[in-house]
Amino acid sequence: MIWARLGILEWSRSVTGLSRDRTGRLDFFFLTILLALTLTLGMLLLGTREGILNRFIDTSLGRLQGHGIPIWVYTTIIDRSGRMDSLIDSRELIDELDATIGARIYVYREIEPNRVSLPGYDDARAFYEEEVMAPIPVWGEDGVQMPFNVRGVSNQDPLWLRAGVPSDPSESMPLVIVLNRSLFKRHFQCAVYLEALASAQFRSPLPPRDLAEVSKQKSSAGLGCLDNGILWLQVKTGVRYLELVPFKIVWRDTRIETMEEVAALFPLATFNAIQAAARLPALRYFPEGYGSVVSRISQLRIWPGAQSSVTENRVKKFRDCLGRRVTRQGWLLILKPAVSASHVLGCGKSADLAVKQGGEAPLVRPFLSVSRSERSHGLTTVNDHELLIPCDGLGKKGRERFGCQREDVDGAGGEKAVKVGLSLLDGYQFAQIYVEDRDDVMRIVSMMRAETRGLLTLRPEYENALKRFMFINDVVNLLRGAFLPVFGLFLLILLIVQLGMVFTHRRHNYGVLLAVGLRPGAVLSMVLLQVSASFFTAFTVATLAISGMRALLSKHFLKVLDAGGYADYLDIGEPDLLPVSQVDFLMLGGTAALVTALVTVLLLMRLLAPWPFGRIPEPAKMLYS
Fold first, then answer.
1. Is the pTM higher than 0.85?
2. How far is Cα 311 from Cα 327, in angstroms, rounded to an integer?
C-alpha cells in the first residue's frame, strides 16, 4: 500500500525535523507534543480527583490494604429493664447477615479490663479476697491512667491477617498479642510495669528465671522492658482468680486500621475460652496448655529433714517465692489456685527444696512431693466463635442445658464434648464489613438498613465521618461536572486549530497525490494513519509521564507521612496520590482518540471535497490556490 509507506515516511520526517519541505516541517511533532500535554493534563486531573477522594476516605473512614474500606456497625437489643444485650449470638445469624448484605461480616469483641488487663489494673479488688492493690497507671500519661483499648478478633479477621501473626495449628488458644508500637511509645510506662509485676507477686508469681530477667530490665529506657518479646497480662482464668500470663508480642509499627485508637489485638479464640471459664465454675482452663489438657499442682507434701530449723526456713522461702495464697496444714501445703509445675520447680530450686513429682527415687530430706494435681479441660474452637467443651466442665446446670447425660461424665471419663455457642460467651455487639470499592459503601449501607430490619446500625462516630465524606464526594463530583465539558471543548478547539494548520500546510502535497492518481480515500487513510501515529505516541508519552509523577509523588508522600508522624494518627492506604486505573486510562484515551479521528475526517473531507461532501476533488485548485 503506497499510501501507508508515504504516510509513515512523511510523518517520521516531520516528527524528527528531517523533511525537505520547509513549510510545516514540524507540524506532526507539535501535534504530538500538544496531544501529549493535553492527555497528561486530563490524566492528572482525573488522578488528582481519585487521589483526593481516596485520601479523604482514608482519613475519615479508613482503608485496609487488600480488603477495602471498613463499615463499622454495632447491634443491640434493649429489654424491659433498659439493658442493652448483644444481638449477634449465633454463628447461624452471622452467616445469615453475610448472605443478606452480600459482604463478609467480621465480628469482634471489645475486651473488658476485668477479663484481660495490664498488670496493676486498679479494679482488682472486685475479684480477689487478697489484699487490695493500689492503682498503678501502667497505661497512661503524666501519671493519669488511660483506657487500654484491646480488640478481640478472629484469626481470619483482616486486621489479624494484616499484622502477619505466625500461626501454630497445635495452639487452639494462642498466647499471642498484636501491639501498636506508636501507642505504646506514648502511653506505656515501662518502669511502672516492672513495679506492677513485682507487686503482683502475692497473687501470681513469675518463675525465678523471669524475675531475674525483669530485674535486669529495670534500667531499660523506652520500651526496653518488652525487648524479650513478652508482655505479661492479668487474665481472669476462672470465676474468681486473675493470674499473670505471658503473651508473645507481634509489633505493628503503624496504626492499627480502625477509626478508634486500638492499642492491641487479642486472639478471639483465647478470649472465648476466658469467657467460658468465667461463666462455668466447673470448667478448668489453664492458658499454658493452649487449649490442650495440662496439669497444675494443687497440693504438696513436706518431707522434713533432721534439723527442723533448716526445713522451716526453706519452706518459708519457698512460700515467699510462690507468692500465692498458700495454706499450710501440718506437713501439707495447699496451693489455691493450683500452680503450674514449672513455677513450683523454679521456686523449689530457689529455696533449695527438691520437688518429687512421680516415681523418682527417694530424695535427700528436706524435699517436697506432689500429692495432688488438677487437670485442665481440653477446649477446641469451632469457627472461632464457638467452643467444644467436655461435659464434665459444664457443671450440673450446664450439663442439663446442653443435653449431657450422667454416663457422658462418669462412664466416658468426661471425654464427650458439646458445642457451646455465643449465647454463653455473651455474643458480639460490634462488627466490621469491608467494601472494596469506594462507590459501594453507600450501597452496602442502604442495603444493610433495608434488609436487616434495623439489626445492624452504623456507629455514631462512623456515620458522622461518612456524612462528611459524602459531602466532600458530592462537591468534587459537582466540580467534575464542570470540568468535563471545559476539557472536552479545550481538546476540540486544540484539534481543530492544530489539525487545520497541518492540513493547510500540506494542501499542495495532497493535490500532487491526487494528480498522480491516488484516490481521495487513500489520501484520507494516509492522513488518519499519520494522526493515529501522533496520537498513540502522545498517549504513550502521557502514560509514562503520569507513571513517573505517581512514583515521584508517592516517594515524597511517604516522606511527608514520616516527617509529620501522620501514620500514628491516620489510616493511610496505598501512598498513591494519582491512582489512575487502567480503565480510566483507556476511557480517557478512547474518548480522545474518537474525537481526534472525527475531527480529522471532517477537516480533511472539507479540504478534499468542499461541501457538500462527495464531489470529485479538483487537484488544480489544491495545487495553485
1. no
2. 17
